[in-house]
TrEMBL record, chain A:
Keyword Membrane: yes
Annotated organism of origin: Chitinophaga oryziterrae
Membrane-spanning intervals of the chain: 18-36, 71-90, 111-136, 148-170, 177-199, 233-251
Entry keyword Nucleus: no
Protein known as: ABC transporter permease subunit
Keywords from the named record: Membrane, Transmembrane, Transmembrane helix
TrEMBL record, chain B:
Single GO MF annotation: ATP binding
InterPro entries, sorted: AAA+_ATPase, ABC_transporter-like_ATP-bd, ABC_transporter-like_CS, P-loop_NTPase
Domain of life: Bacteria
Keyword terms: ATP-binding, Nucleotide-binding, Transport
Pfam family, one: ABC_tran
Lineage: Bacteria, Pseudomonadati, Bacteroidota, Chitinophagia, Chitinophagales
Keyword ATP-binding: yes
Natural source organism: Chitinophaga oryziterrae
Gene3D superfamilies recorded: P-loop containing nucleotide triphosphate hydrolases
Start and end residues of each ABC transporter domain: 4-227
Protein name: ATP-binding cassette domain-containing protein
């Protein structure tokens, strides 16, 4: 595996697009939280006293950061889609195998990015939450609710697995990006709204919606009118199930199909 | 021990039967040409050997073992087109290849020099001409000095000098004892370098084995005199005469039942009162023999 990581590093070390997208994906985490913090700080004092606590106070800061970041996971997915579709555009996925990788080594090389980007997003999120909690919050440090960042980690892991699957199936960069963003930003949302309207809670079980259900925005999220929710464990199991299915499809496709 | 042994390999693309029950062995140290017209299945066959495609039926062994990535790491392969990361330089692309092949990066300058790319080694691949891309693919195949090379149309996109250089390189590699499996539709290329051939047509193996055994090309004598009509009458009376054809220039191309010494024929004609003004031993071109084989 170390050998595979070394080779992936060689592929991106001098790839400018990679570093620009990565920088953007990382910067947007604190930047979007700064924006949301600014908005929440403008909530009139009377309302704030009603809520009792601010979204960036410990321990709510973990949940707030996790929720805000879940909206920007698509940027990491774009980065992954670029890396994956590059291989198909340049036909280097074939060359890697011809030169002496097992097909599964190629899958591992891309799963490495899924994991590495997820861990990076998680670490940056933890640091962001700590910074906002200490800098903008008024409460003492508290780890309660840290598990929301765990949910966020799973959300980005699932987002990247779906992006990898899209890249492998579609192969062409432009089309893969349009299809992925179209699904994530519009199509799934439409499906969720429709299902929730006609069939109730089951709408919350669509792939990325499972994570959204696990990551409501603190305070406000619970005030929004919505349908009856399942227990968090149901969403968690569904989310892990989707990751497992995506991985199975990725392996099946790359191990069996003609390259 | 054959380097590569194919047993009944078949492959379909939808309704198209790309390969049908192909079997042959590549002996060690041979320069093995896989010949066939465009679309005959040459690249499909090599793609199966390199695990890019899966065969529908049949099996093959590499170095007498079940094929795996380990064996592929010991084979230098150029398949179809040069596949490299467009944004990386030649050197960095070869670093990736060396990493996958688990070979030392110290060999990179040698292969770049062999391919004539040293001066441009730090330019991005996307800035390369078609010929330079092909040269880099050859350099990549040579990386780590493998004992076996698979070269699919190695002179594709090269200028005449480049083609000649590749041919010389293949000969040198063959002399050094390497086994080279080379797909080509350029018969001239095969005729000049290959020791063995397999001929494919529409996915079927027509013949395989040593070049001269597979493509029998009888010698014939081309003769001419001041009066070719009279010469024709005389030649037809020769005891070993088999058949004769006339070239557009009026010369006679004569095939005998058994080898006939040109000096003896010259003597025989003079005894019949005909003085030859043209006498040459010739051989059927590989192209003619190949066309006869693949068209029938």
């Amino acid at each position: 595996m170390l050998q595979i990581i070394k080779i992936e590093w060689l592929k991106v070390k001098t790839y400018r697009t990679f570093w620009i997208l990565l920088g953007l994906a990382v910067i947007i985490i604190p930047a979007s939280n700064l924006l949301v913090q600014d908005i929440t700080s403008r909530i009139p004092k009377q309302v704030q006293s009603l809520l009792g606590t601010s979204a960036y106070d410990f321990p709510l800061v973990w949940q707030s950061v996790a929720n805000v970041n879940s909206y920007t996971s698509a940027i990491f997915a774009l980065l992954l889609l670029t890396l994956v579709t590059n291989e198909f555009t340049f036909k280097t996925h074939r060359q890697n195998v011809i030169d002496g990788w097992e097909r599964k080594d190629f899958v591992f090389s891309k799963l490495f990015w899924v994991l590495a980007l997820s861990v990076l997003a998680f670490v940056v999120s933890v640091l962001t939450a700590l910074f906002f909690g200490f800098f903008y919050g008024t409460s003492a440090f508290n780890m309660e609710g840290f598990y929301y960042l765990g949910y966020y980690f799973l959300q980005i892991l699932l987002s990247l697995c779906l992006a990898l699957l899209t890249g492998i199936l579609v192969k062409r960069a432009g089309l893969a990006i349009v299809l992925y963003l179209g699904y994530v930003m519009i199509f799934e949302q439409l499906l969720v709204v429709t299902l929730k309207r006609f069939w109730g809670s089951v709408g919350g079980l669509l792939p990325l919606q499972t994570a959204d259900e696990l990551l409501p925005f603190p305070l406000i999220g619970k005030m929004l009118p919505g349908v009856q929710q399942y227990d968090n464990m149901v969403y968690l199991i569904a989310l892990l199930g989707y990751i497992a299915v995506a991985l199975w499809l990725i392996f099946r496709r790359l191990l069996k199909a003609d390259l | 021990m054959p380097i590569l042994s194919l047993q009944n390999i078949s492959k379909k693309y939808g309704p198209v039967q790309a390969l049908s029950q192909v079997s042959f062995d590549v002996p060690p140290g041979s320069v093995f040409g896989i010949l066939g017209p465009n679309g005959s299945g040459k690249t499909t066959l090599l793609s199966i050997v390199t695990d890019v495609l899966s065969a529908d039926e049949g099996s093959f062994t590499l170095f007498d073992q079940q094929p795996s990535a380990k064996q592929r790491r010991n084979i230098g392969t150029l398949l179809e087109t040069p596949n490299f990361y467009h944004y990386l330089s030649a050197y960095r692309n070869l670093q990736v290849v060396a990493g996958i092949k688990q070979r030392s990066e110290e060999d990179i300058p040698r292969v770049l020099e062999l391919a004539g790319l040293t001066a441009r080694q730090h330019s991005a691949f996307k800035t390369y001409s078609l010929g330079m891309k092909q040269r880099l693919a050859i350099a990549s195949a040579l990386l780590g000095d493998p004992d076996v090379l698979i070269l699919d149309e190695p002179s594709n996109g090269l200028d005449p000098v480049g083609i000649s250089e590749v041919r010389t390189l293949v000969k040198q590699l063959a002399q050094a004892g390497k086994t080279i499996i080379m797909a080509s539709h350029l018969l001239d290329e095969v005729e000049k370098v290959c020791t063995h051939v397999a001929i494919l047509r529409k996915g079927k193996l027509l013949l395989s084995g040593p070049v001269n055994a597979v493509i029998t090309r009888d010698d014939f004598l081309e003769v001419g005199s001041a009066d070719n009509k009279a010469l024709k009458g005389v030649i037809e009376k020769h005891p070993a005469f088999l058949q004769l054809s006339v070239t557009p220039e009026g010369l006679l191309q004569v095939i005998f039942k058994e080898p006939v010494d040109p000096a003896a024929l010259n003597n025989w004609c003079s005894q019949q009162g005909i003085w030859l003004s043209h006498l040459q031993v010739r051989r059927k071109s590989l192209e003619t023999a190949f066309l006869e084989l693949t068209n029938n």
